[in-house]
Structure formats: C-alpha cells, structure tokens
Design a protein that fits this description.
Elements lengths: L1 H14 L3 E8 L9 H6 L4 E4 L10 E4 L8 H8 L6 E8 L3 H17 L3
Antiparallel strand pairs: 1-4, 2-3
C-alpha cells in the first residue's frame, strides 16, 4: 500500500494540494501497562518505552514515528476491548479554508470549556 500511496502523496505535496495522513498513538496516562496490544497486533512500530511519570515503574506502550497508519493496532485493541488509550490522529497538510475555519471553532469552544 505504501509503495502505491507514497508517490501520490509526494506529488500532492509538491503541487500544494490538501493531503491527509493518518497516524495512531497511545496515551501514556491511560495505558494500563499489560502490553496485550503489542502481543496481539504484531505491529513493528508499537513498542515499549519508559514512562515519563516518576511514580510509575512499569513501561508503557508507544507508537514510533514509523507508523504508516494501517490501523491494525487500533482495530485489535478495540475489538478485544484491551486498551482505552489508543487514539487516531489525522495530519492535514495544506488545509483548505474550511479545515482552518473548523479548527478555529474547535479550538475556541474547547478553550471555553477548559477551566481557567
């Protein structure tokens, strides 16, 4: 899949067109630390790293920058109800005016809901 998509993505970036990449990650604060997600998915970018929390001794799951966004790790974790810490991030390059407008509205309303 990546051999097919990489030239298309490079051409779109060179032309200045909107491009969306999907990346997955693990929230370090909600990771349970049992690492069943790593055992079941088999993804090479899903690894273990030391926790940044000094009170937490066990390592946490981590998705490296080599993630290609296939979604296998998140699907396995959700289907087996393993881990609530997986999240999906869509990286937009050369966003349209609509993307910028919705982003500003989202940031504004999230800022209103945040405690002062």
């Amino acid at each position: 899949r990546q051999r097919r998509l990489k030239p298309i993505r490079a051409r779109r970036l060179k032309e200045g067109l909107r491009s969306v990449r999907t990346r997955y990650g693990v929230d370090e604060g909600t990771c349970t630390g049992d690492h069943s997600c790593i055992r079941l998915s088999g993804c090479p970018t899903l690894t273990v790293k030391a926790s940044s929390d000094p009170l937490r001794r066990e390592p946490v799951a981590h998705v490296t920058n080599g993630c290609v966004g296939c979604g296998l790790c998140g699907e396995v974790a959700d289907a087996a109800v393993l881990c609530p810490s997986f999240h999906k991030v869509e990286i937009v390059t050369h966003p349209s005016w609509w993307d910028r407008l919705t982003d500003r509205f989202n940031r504004f309303f999230i800022g209103l809901m945040q405690p002062a």
